[in-house]
Amino acid sequence: MAAMTDAERPDAATYEPVLRRFPDAEELGRAAARDIAAAIITRLAARPEVRMIFAAAPSQEATLRALAEHPGVDWTRVTAFHMDEYLSLDTGAPQRFGAWLRRAFFDRVPLGAVHLIDPDAPPEAYARLLTAAPIDITCLGIGVNGHLAFNDPPADLADPVPVKVVELDEVCRRQQVDDGCFAVLDQVPRRAITLTVPALLAADEVFCMVPGARKRDAVTAALRGPIGGHLPASALRTHPRCVVYVDEESAPR
């Protein structure tokens, strides 16, 4: 029998994420951006730096656009990481998540530092950068199959390493086609490097933006179903400071 993850143990602490519902993805993005900006500003009032993890996906575009335009954030004191990257794509491929985040956000604000995953480097190299100091904020989404970053089911919710290479399942790869990132399934890489679930949820605050009808089932299962590696996003309920933003199409059943 497979070993239990920490989140599946009877005595594991669980929480009810704050659920915020909006009419559409644009309003969701503006509201999430306001909350994220407020969290950054509050933290920068008490410390010299904020360290953040960002997701690269079309579902995050409205939030990142609004966040880049939000006044009052001293981005020069923010260090940014991203949470996953394909293996085997050409260096200049526009589908690389690091390239997407540069276009959508990283090149639009004067960040103090940006640490992109180098798919040609060992995972341990990025892990050392990530764990050099605590992470304050993670901004992420939920995949159609319930994945967090590229942690497809079944995922280890108590993974002992912060960064690793993974094989992508077909549902995850199909989502990249449906999102318009690739023309056909055969173009989507089969392997990637990703932050693990514990690394994502090690942040002090988690903001999860999940618009769109294709995400409704995953959102419902994550918030209402059992917690376990069969649905990685269910691990959000093990975090004490998590806010989930949905629109009318993605709101849980």
Briefly, what CATH class?
Answer: Alpha Beta
Task: Work out the count of structural domains.
Answer: 1
Gross morphology: globular
Helix content: 25-40%
- CATH fold title: Rossmann fold
Integer average pLDDT: 94
Spans of at least 5 consecutive residues whose pLDDT stays below 50 are 1-7
Keywords: Carbohydrate metabolism
InterPro entries: Glc/Gal-6P_isomerase, Glucosamine6P_isomerase, NagB/RpiA_transferase-like
Protein name: Glucosamine-6-phosphate deaminase
Describe the structure.
The protein is of the alpha/beta class and 253 residues long. The chain has one domain (43-247): Rossmann fold (3-Layer(aba) Sandwich). The protein is 27% helix and 19% strand. The protein has helices at residues 25-44, 61-69, 97-106, 123-130, 170-178, 197-200, 216-224; strands at residues 18-22, 50-54, 78-82, 84-86, 113-115, 137-140, 163-167, 191-195, 205-210, 242-247. Strands 1-10-9-6-2-3-5 form a 7-stranded parallel beta sheet, sandwiched between helices. A 3-stranded antiparallel beta sheet has the order 4-8-7.
